[in-house]
Amino acid sequence: MTTIVRFAPSPTGMIHIGNARTALFNWLFAMKTGGQLIQRFDDTDVARSKQEYADAILTDLEWLGIKPSAIDYQSKRFAIYDAAVAKLKSAGLLYPCYETADELERRRKIRLSRRLPPVYGREALKLTADEISALEAEGRKPHWRFLLPNFADDPFAPSRTEVHWDDVVRGPQTVDLASMSDPVLVREDGTYLYTLPSVADDIEMGITHIIRGDDHVTNTGAQIALFRALGAEPPAFGHHNLLTTASGEGLSKRTGALSITGLRESGIEPMAVASLAVLIGTSESVQPVATMEELAARFDPAATSKSAAKFDPAEVGTLNRALIHQMSFAEVQARLAELGIEGPQAEEFWLAVRGNLETVADAATWWRIVREGPDTAESLSEEDRGFVAEAFDLLPPEPWDRGTWRIWTDAVKAQSGRKGKTLFMPLRLALTGRPSGPELADLLPLLGRAGTLGRRP
Ligand code: GLU
After folding, report:
1. Is pLDDT at 258 greater than 90 in this prediction?
2. Taking residues 241-259, what's their average pLDDT?
3. 96 - beta bridge partners?
4. Which of 39, 45, 405, 453 lies in disulfide reach of 71, CB 3.0 to 4.6 Å?
């Protein structure tokens, strides 16, 4: 059987690194099992869902290297949900309720005071046809609840009804259907809550594994019952832990915190985001992984811890630098060419500067410094200026290589008596305009003798 998974965000904002975790868990699971991923937008809430967010999510997924085999929108699939509703109604498993939120709250308090579980008592099932007509005549509209299979003959006497599943992330799970209220599937205004469209689609799309955040664990019991009520075998489930900030706060699409778009725009590499999003909160150490294939090889859903994974946003930057530092020229050649970095010196240049870059795009700054000279005014004292000018008289003849720096600075040391920082810093400032950067031994052959002399203060 081919594995079919889905990533099902509501397009109500930019996805963040926590959503990317869900998308990547699904994608890596599909990769490992030779399956497919369906990109489904849960956009039944038309007021909050926006096409521009769906488009941004598709761009983000493509950038991350996730390749859905199909893209679909719940807003185009209402006929499927309407058919599911008809099926449930005709089986007597979806019943109309007329309580207001206040009435429900009052009843909840009464149940609590009687030490009963604060679940819905199915009072609407007792309404006679006449009572229903009277309520409708008042202009009341019903919301519709799914009758959970948690009783033998009498729906008013529910008894412990365990639903089990072997979670691909958390291992064996049990939920008691008697501990929950019959879920509302359709609101008074006829709009759908998340549960029914999700299950109806998972059936219709042939989803074999539902992999999502562990905030959905308790939904799963009722959803398994709903799969069965609709005549389908439930798929397998996997619930991964959620990411929180260091202070334990959840991430939200609405606040735009650590959005994938934002990380992309700030020059972060997709595999830095993917490495962090997947490996954090697992028994694997968080390391920069260069390709999705390698990440898939390390990915083991069962190695995910059960508690929330706290993460430090600064880690994205650390992983990014580490990835760039080990990138070969072949890997970045095309991107460097787009930045204008090409020609016979490009490879040597890349190997010289990659260890000092925050982003690949930063290479352009160093390319300019190497080719055109410092772009910031070097702050040399009068004395250092004289020292550097004299040092330039000692530049060895070409050809130059990595050893030239040593030969030159040995000669400068012998003549000036300077050493350490007092020797190197003025030379670095004169050559690059900056107090730190790539090894001067690597830069010098790129500057060449003429290029170096052009920087004499
Ligand atoms: N739209 C739901 C969410 O974003 C999907 C949950 C699921 O994967 O079933 O939470």
Report:
1. no
2. 78
3. 144
4. 39
